[in-house]
Give the backbone structure.
Amino acid sequence: MANIKMITPVAEKRSMPAQQAPAGGSRRHAAWFALWGVLFLLLLAPATTTVYAELSKRSFNDNYIQYTTAVVGSIAAWRLSRSARTIPAASSMLGAVALAITSAVNSLAVLLHMATLWDISIIAMVGSFILAVRGPAKLQHYLPLILFSFFIVPDMPDELRLKISLPLQMITTKGSVALAHLFIPISSIGHTFIVNGHPFDVAPGCSGLNMWISFLFAFGIWQLIDRFRPHAYGIMAIGIGVLTMALNVVRLFITALVAYYISADQALAIHANLEAVLVPLGLLLLFYVGGRLRSAEKTTAA
Amino acid sequence: MQKKQLLLNLIVTASLAFPGIAAGAFQQEMSAAEKIKALHPVKLPAQLGDALAKASPADVDQPDLVCKRYISPANARLWAMVRQTSIFTQIHDFTDCLISNGYKPESVKRVAVKTDAGTMDAQILATHGKANSLAILWFQTGTISGADRWQWRQRLLTGGMPKLPVCRETQISLKRSGDDQQDMRKLTEAAVSVYRSQIE
């Protein structure tokens, strides 16, 4: 996994200010790091085969986010580790406590056979580890990469996916029906809208969840390159959700118009292709808003 | 080395070592069916218990399974449609799905549904390894076309299914005992019995 590379501490300890180095000298310090490196390897070794097995069962199209995350994350990890040398290091007891908690969650995931929780907790452990042994400044330096690393988790559990997609289906249906009702006769039952007697079910695939993930992924890559102000993450998280729903409402609104004025078959044919137009449009909006939230400081992963 | 730094280093070391130790310990436990039973005792709802008591061994015979849709193999989660023996014979698809996810062929072949009245569609959700549960969802399709069935399943799962008279559904779930064959037989028997109790 790409996120492992960023914890390599050997190169970093050379630049550690002497007054902040743990008592006992750098040799003893290096021994601790070697021990932790081995423990991390032992922890991750079994997971490598599991992740490979999971990814190999799926088509390339289903894995492109994971592969892209691995490649981009590896490059970012390498560049961040180089630029991290100038950042002062200091240990943090808060980080050690956080690491203990995430370690417990990871163990629980093993007990309950929850693969996704395991993946997430490992990434959280890496972040906690950096905080514990290298301090908050280093964690802040690596934080964009840690956030981006969550995209490497193979898949969202079906239960969680359905819990997110169903409200999206309902919101999208209501929004598009309300908009279309201004122009054409249209009705809806649940997440199905009816035009000219033809029912159109807004399925989970039409909920906009995939579009949402795509926009988040684009922003995830961007924040590896540009430094954002802290509040920008909250604004973008909310903004991307609103943007996704708005675009999906437009998509289904156009679908309903086509169904009314042309035919149901044409509407079904066009509704998926509309994403090819709306996603780039959404990305432009995303870049426009994100550009105004950038910090003047550039990341060194760029 | 300062005491505080030493404490921190020990906490970090223990935190990194513990998941690996725990994984080894849990792996040994999971390999023994008795330990799984102890961890996840089988608790059947009253209705299911009654249905199981009424079930006849003749209801469970030779398998006839059709892999209707194979979802999310990353989660090792399988969906299959079980139908009357006389209607479908494509057992190999579903068998492949199960075997590729770790089920033993003999346990697959013993899963069966045989009804003597009406049409029964049952969907078996077999969750392998990731969670300790198996569940079966079934409904009488009646006038529901095959094309609509997928969306019906989605609505069943999400709770958004309209309460139409044509659909009778129930969800039966029980904890895994560690014996896949036994678990799936129980689920099948229960589904058949509940189905019969509702149509008779």
